Amino acid sequence: MSATAVAQRLKTEWETPKSLWGKFATVDHKEIGIRYIVTALVFMCIGGIEALIVRVQLARPDAALVSPEVYDQLFTMHGITMIFWYAQPILSGFAIYVIPMMIGARDMALPRLNAFTYWAFLLSGILVYIAPCMGQAPHAGWFAYVPYTLYQYSPSHGMDFYAMSLILFTISMTGGAVNFILTIMRQRAPGMSINRMPLFVYSTFTISWVSIFAMPALTAACVFLELDRRWGTHFYTIAHGGSAILWQQLFWFFGHPWVYIIFLPATGMLSMIIPIFSRRPIVGYPWVAVSTILTGAVGFSVWMHHMFTVGMSDMSMSFFSAGSMMISIFTTVQIFAWVATLWKGRLVMTTAMHYALGSIAVLIVGGLNGVVTGIIPLDWQAHNTYFVVSHIHYVLIGGNMFPVFAALFYWFPKMTGKMLNESLGKWSFWICFVGFNVAFFPMQILGFIGMPRRVYTYPAGLGWSSMNMLETAGAFVLGIGILLIFINVFISRRRGRIAGRNPWNADTLEWATDSPPEAYAFVHLPTVASRHPLWDDHDEEADPSDERTLDDGRLTLVSTWLDAEPYAVASMPKETLVPLLACLTLFGFFLALVFQLMWLVLGCFLVTLSFAFYWLWPRPEAEEGA
Amino acid sequence: MMAAAAPVQATRLPRQPGTRYPLDKSRGEWAMWLTIATEGSLFVCLFASYFYLANNKNRWAIDHPPKLHYALIMLAVLLSSSFVLHWGESQLKKQRYVAARVGLGITILMGLGFLALSAFEYMEHWKDLTPDSNSYGSIFYTIVSFHAAHVIMGLLMLSYTLTLPRYSPTSRSPYRPYHVAGLYWHFVDIVWVFVVAFLYVMPNVRVYGF
Q: What is the DSSP code (8-state) at residue B64?
């Protein structure tokens, strides 16, 4: 069979019909990955606008741009939007798009679950944004401490929306984690043993395991909260033997691993991007891989450092303080590996590289003031001040947003076939970098001279006014920088330079596909003989007798998890509306729970269940090609 | 292990040309193990909350430790149902489909029996403890109800497996769904062991000793 005939067969097998039905029914990881990215960026814009309103309110002393209640809702919505609906989903988006191709597979292991987790992510975001549309947004900060969030103090439906949308979100997260683990453990190209896995795959793999074990704590915390609020139980009410600290324990047992869930994949991105633009393999690959895994593991034993001011035994304080400082070692290992790579490399200063370097700079500041908050006496001083606000933004913008922008510039050519404009990109970088530091560096000083976080306003004459004005100006400059990135994306999608297969001369397998890739990605599923498939002499797609085309069905290879020896062929499902429909009824289930419409809850549950049964019903086509 | 490895050739595919690897059959089982891992950590969080609240000694309003008889009977029912299900699965492997379905049916009946017993258990408890009486009542009923919800989910899975066709529309045996749903059922059963140990036996031991 000629190569074009094979390609044609694969195309008819894999391509989603270009119809309205196809849009809602698609299970293609490339389509879903881009949707994740776009949706997360939309949430980022919404959260960014909320942050700008907060900053305008704080720009001058005694301002009253919004009412105190609206102000509380704004910073809360900003926090949960950025932390839940932007920071993790955008990393999932890149991972869903890139990882199957990076490991030489044709799709995620569970494509329909992949579609389901996307819809669950989108609908949970919509669910939480119904609340502000009703004028009843959550208003207790992103970690929603009891007793303020209990019914007596927050009688509106805001906190119910918070709890229910987060439970739906954890369903999405857990499904995504299962999917990543199965994809990475089972579908790597023959020869891609674990010591040849790209580091982005390592980091996504680690955080998927972390999600499996950490997300249930959030679910439990939110279930208890909702039961306390609407069903009269006493988990958190002290008068009846409950404990307000229980919420904090459960929330932070989830919350600190979560910090690594939204941080580690971004370091994985940097470990891909920095070597490419240093034109050499990363220094200390095994060290970076191991420290990634250790960060995920040790991330479970540091949660109480969020609670040092609560009061605990000296033993606990020492343990969690030591854990918090130990974990900075693993991050430092990664940073030293990057710096050594830069040191030994020949740098190509693309926009992606600018963002990567900016990210290291910002991350070092964020990491250092993180160590400060790990030291208990200093933490007692800095707790609940603007110092902590500065810390979280230095870590999350250095450890998530800048790497994401680097990844956007790096993988955009693969996704669209067009290059982003480099000079506009560098402008956007410098504007973002300057704007960010102007916005957030003064907060460290403000924190130490006593400005608490989350205050509605402050009187003049405390010496806070000029720095607050400066921060607001910086926030707007950062906003302009981000706006430039969006302008760049919109222009370059149409008019950008044609990228070709591998514009960066990169080493991983996704660059062996067309830009944008065909639905089936590879005509011949590749084999791998080194850590840098496209840099070595091995011909990945050499397959003279067409053994690895697998063109008689939607098929991909399954291999062993350590050595990636192929042992089976997995049959992939076709397009279906069921994930969307199941998600819509699940959305109805949680929406009905917010208002305690129990018959509707039961109805939605039964309909969701019947969709699940239809989903799982065996289909004859799955047997073809066996 | 990593750095010391000699340069390895790309893995060759050790097959005759023209033959195909077998169709993958283990995806669902892997996904179920991960589901069990995450559900297991949900129960770990629930038990941790139970002990955290119990540690609050002067506020822990456990007046009488819960009576053991229903819980132990329920434990016996659930654990033996696991053995029945395992027997059914072994019949399935020997391609004795009717026996396998009978095993599955008996398991479902035993699961329903468990739910009926827990209804009695609830009624007995409800007289002097409700979820809104105190934190002990809240966490007790939450854990027991979460477990009951998992039993119901397990029963739904098993009933679904019972209805799966053997001959049409596919030719494959119902072994995989049987095995995967079975894994979940065994998990639910094991959780009950911990519920009995932590919520029923330990308070009794504290009060009455061994």
A: S
Nearest residue of chain A to residue B30 (CA atoms)? A182
Question: How many independent structural domains does chain B possess?
Answer: 1
Is residue A5 within 8 Å of A494, Cβ to Cβ? no
pLDDT in tens, B118-131: 999 999 888 888 89
Residue B53 lies in a domain: no
- What single-letter amino acid sits at A46? I
Whether residue B111 lies inside any domain: the answer is: yes
Q: What is the ipTM of this complex?
A: 0.93
State the nearest Cα–Cα gap between B73 and chain A, in angstroms. 28
Q: What does DSSP assign to residue A623?
A: G
Q: Kindly state the helix (H) or strand (E) to which residue A496 belongs, with its residue range.
A: none
- The alpha carbon dihedral of A504, A508, A512, A513 has a sign of negative
- Contact yes or no for B169 and A620 at CB 8 A: yes
Q: Is B157 inside a domain boundary?
A: yes
Taking only Cα atoms into account, the Rg of chain A, rounded to an integer number of angstroms, comes to: 24
Q: Which domain holds residue B81?
A: 67-177+194-210
| Domain annotation covers residue B108 | yes
Closest Cα of chain A to B42: distance in Å? 5
- Interface list for A 91-150 with B (CB within 8 A): 109-110, 113
Identify each DSSP E strand in A515-605 by its residue range. 555-559, 566-571
B10 and A190: CB-CB below 8 Å? yes
Between B5, B8, B53, which is nearest A241 by CB? B53
Question: In a mutagenesis test of the A interface, which of B16, B41, B184 is the best target, namely the one with the most A β-carbons within 10 Å?
Answer: B41
Q: What is the β-pairing status of strands A555-559 and A566-571? A: antiparallel
For A456, the 3-state DSSP assignment is coil
CB-CB contact of A536 with A530 (8 Å)? yes
**Domain CATH code at residue B167:** 1.20.120.80
Are the C-beta atoms of A338 and A276 separated by less than 8 Å? Answer: no
How far from B80 is each of A108, A492, A540, B112, B185, CA to CA, in Å?
38, 65, 53, 13, 12
Please report the sign of the dihedral spanned by the C-alpha atoms of residue A109, residue A113, residue A115, residue A118.
negative
CB-nearest to B169 from A185, A193, A618 is A618
Instruction: Label residue A212 by pLDDT band (50, 70, 90).
Output: very high
Residue A182: name the closest of A510, A559, A576 by CA.
Answer: A559
Q: What's the sign of the alpha-carbon dihedral A444, A448, A453, A459? A: negative
Is the CB of A246 less than 8 angstroms away from the CB of B53? yes
DSSP output for B141-195 = HHHHHHHHHHHHHHHHHHHHHHH--SSSS--S-THHHHHHHHHHHHHHHHHHHHH
Which residue, A412, A356, A418, A395, is CA-closest to A38?
A412
pLDDT in tens, A577-589: 999 999 999 999 9
Q: Is the pLDDT of residue B40 over 90?
A: yes
CA distance A190 to chain B (A): 6
Percent pLDDT > 70 in chain A is: 99
Cβ–Cβ of A241/B135 closer than 8 Å?
Answer: yes
